[in-house]
Amino acid sequence: MCAAKAHNQEIAGALETSMNPKKAVLITGAAVAGAGLLCAGTTAAVVYRWISRRTARRLRGLSGKVVLITGASRGLGLAMAEEFGRCGAKLVLAARDPWELERARTSLVERKAVQDAADILVIPTDLRQADEAQHLVERATEHFGRIDVLVNNAGVTTVGPVENQTVGDFHDVMDSNFFSAVHCALAVLPQMLGRRSGTIVNVASIGGKVAVPHMLPYTASKFAEVGFSEGLHAELRAKGVHVLTVCPGLMRTGSHGNAMFSGDAAREYRWFSLAATLPGVSTSAAAAARRIVRAVVAGETEIAITPQAVAAARLGNLAPEVVGLAMGAVNRLLPAAVAGKPELRRGAEVRSLETAPAATIGDAAALRYNQTA
């Protein structure tokens, strides 16, 4: 009875439609649109599954690879170590502080980021010195046999108006952010060129594409690193060595507590900590690390992380005058310079004016990524 009733309703509907052309057009249009959406959804699902499987296969290709990460004891460096480790890579972690490195190794083992504690080698080193970078590469190669991926991530951040920066500040930041990358890249190049394989990742910054007010030493060093990285890519691409330039935006790593502040340090720290922790403006260190690792296996040349970083990088090339005006407007909102050349102070020492939300989010990130003293 139910089937017969349904059949009669279909016939009645068909007769009604045949007597109402406008309704027929609407029904036909809706049917076509529905079919189109269904087809598009199915296609998107198929493409997504294909991309996911392809990415998974490529990530498995990192199993057994040797990845050397500088600045790996905390922050983004530690997040990348965890991501590479979960893909089966053997890790060489380099940083200046031996105690931070040991804590980083312990945390990676406790989180089961590596299959075996023996898959992690920690080497305390000061990469501002070319001979120490050479020693780092030699020791890592002796231990694991080779270096497949070098991630130049070591660096420092100074914040404050240019009137309160010194020539020494510029030298210190250039040595840490730029020359450490140059030293490591030149040290690892001979073995990669000999094998005609390998990857060099240079973690620069959106500050290497757009000049950020109150961060002039940092910005200068990152512009230099972007130029060095892009030049490396141009020279090495045909020689079998992959070079990836990474320009992250703001990330929730807890690193602002270890950044150095000059001028009105407490007020400089307040705006910087808020920008570095605000969801929607900053991204998580884990998300940034995943993006970088996937760019490595996909053989990408340059990536920007966070929508703001992508937009700023594009605008910096297409409309430099507009970006310059915008950065000038931002500068007018930042704290004024103070008299003289006050001593640089660590962020964790000047938190008196920090907002509660920034403190809560920043402390959680600092605890997760080994940024606490």
What's the SSE blueprint?
Blueprint: H1 2-18, H2 21-60, E1 66-70, H3 75-86, E2 90-95, H4 98-110, E3 120-124, H5 130-144, E4 149-152, E5 158-159, H6 167-195, E6 199-203, H7 216-236, E7 242-248, E8 251-252, E9 260-261, H8 265-277, E10 283-284, H9 285-298, E11 302-305, H10 307-318, H11 320-333, E12 345-346, H12 356-368
Parallel strand pairs: 1-2, 1-4, 2-3, 4-6, 5-9, 6-7, 7-11, 8-10
Antiparallel strand pairs: 9-12
Task: Summarize the structure in words.
- By secondary structure, the protein is an alpha/beta fold.
- It has a single domain (61-368), classed as NAD(P)-binding Rossmann-like Domain (Rossmann fold, 3-Layer(aba) Sandwich).
- It has twelve helices and twelve strands.
- Helix 3 (75-86) packs across helix 9 (285-298) and helix 10 packs across helix 11.
- It is globular and about 55 Å long.
- The chain starts with a helix and ends in a 5-residue tail after the last helix.
